[in-house]
Predict the structure.
Amino acid sequence: MLLRDFIEDSLYNPNYGYFSNRAVIFNPGDPFDFNSIRDELEFQKVLGKRYTEFEDELDAKEYDEARQLWHTPTELFRPYYGEAIARYLVTNYKLTHHPFHDLIIYELGAGNGTLMLNVLDYIRDVHPDVYERTQYKIIEISSALATLQSSQLTSSAASRGHEKHLEIINQSIFNWNIYVGAPCYFVALEVFDNFAHDAIRYDPFTEEPLQGMVLVDSDGDFFEFYTKHMDPVVDRFLRLRHSACRRPFQHPLSGSRMMRKFKAGLPLAPNLTVPEYVPTRLMQFFDVLSNYFPQHQLIACDFHDLPDRIPGYQSPVVSTRYQRRPVTVTTPLVQQGFFDIFFPSDFNVVEDMYSAITGKLTRVMSQKEFLERWAYTEDTRTLSGENPMLEWYKNASTMLGVT
């Protein structure tokens, strides 16, 4: 099978996929009172204590030494992070679509549903006129997470009031077939990193690309091999990237051709370059936005760099947890469902390809810069003046649609 199909099956198979069956998103309980925390070091200690308490409660119900527990900035910095997104949405809505259209928000992959609650709470409390015209729609591939998001609506008296404003659509975005002609906002936070990628290696002499495949033998072992027969999706990606990208990007054929050929000619040198991982599923996501949401405005945030990646260009981190400790490995060919496989995004490439497919303009900034513009940063400032919401996730960027 294609490597991207193997990765997608590992992450999203409804029976054994990582997100469908294994992943648990950390819920810290009450929001952190950052203004009473001494400094960032103390925040890490408080966070570690809550992590332990959260997992102890889960183990008391059902022990799992391989529980896949992880967190997001939405959870760590709630409600302040979600309120920043809400301010951006309402401000842009009032500037461009109010009062002629409703505020329609689509969120892809909503996790615990915390962002949805924080956004709707903020709009209801601060902009009640806009709240009456707000529609929040979650597109969630995981049935387990979709059920969890529904339960959030009945978790408190305040959240129960959001029911008429919310719709949870339990399906893959890649199966979407409904045309949405109205203006809308499409929120994708830490979604790009888990879209399946293809692997490409090149002949160092001819520069011919070869596509990565996965072979499963009769014993269930995985083997990677490369073929010159490119499937249409990868072929289109390479052609589109070549024509659309205005800025240079790193890939295995970067650098001196003479030096590359010299190294390839040395004894025992590999006959192909190191792999390049290309975001073919992300390209198809942009196709869905272009074809079915022509008046969308994108709000995306994801990692532009990641530590502990496997060898290669734009290569993923492949990791799991065992006995509450992270374990990273050096290949994506792992037992399906037990490993998270997540990729960094080259936002120069992503931005240019998005514009080429949708015809829309964007601007990219660091997550810190976005939060400095739209969050009340004093809410997450510690007594020492340090601000974890701004200082954490420095390896994340935000891409915003421009109207």
The longest strand covers residues 209-216. The chain is about 35% helix and 20% strand. The first helix runs from residue 3 to 12.
